[in-house]
Amino acid sequence: MSARKLLGLPRGALASTHPVYRAWGAMRQRCNNSKHPDFKWYGARGIKVCRRWNSFAAFFADMGSPPTPDLTLDREDNDKGYGPGNCRWATWTEQARNRRRSFLLSDGTHLGALVDKTGLRYSTVTQRIARGMSVGEALGTPLRQRGRHRVLSPRDEEELFGLHAQGRSMKELGARFGVSRSTLHRILRRSS
Q1: Which of 46, 166, 172, 188 has its CA 20 to 30 A from that of 72?
Q2: How many distinct structural domains can be found in the chain?
Q3: Per residue in 76-91, pLDDT tens?
């Protein structure tokens, strides 16, 4: 059966424009085409596409369409190739956490999941760990003030916007977040 029919496309439609077909083609290019810009991260590392998936029909039978359009093809184990037991449809966030250089804690938790709960930036926490802090210290240490302006975490900024919308005074907000009025004005102007 043709790719067009498998995808349920009308006569005359090009299968190559369908997201699933493009994901399949891109996967094969990254692994098999030494001139592809990403070959060094895939084919050159020994990442291969299983023989079965050289056929789009077999790939589509195993993977189907992603449940939502924002999902992309992802390998669960980045040291293994593309095949039925190692691939899934994942969000960009899931993919970002599933990189060779991402931090996986001893209990299997991704550091990114813990960082999301703190309001800190992922890069801040990973830099702290690289400098010798434990994971607990890196997650629990608040941001330091830079010069005269304190940098608020995204969570603090969200709370600031909510309290400002409720009509709290600048003096009260400054005391609550430990920032000057000029810093408050700068943050609030940036959001509007």
Answers
A1: 46
A2: 3
A3: 888 899 999 999 999 8
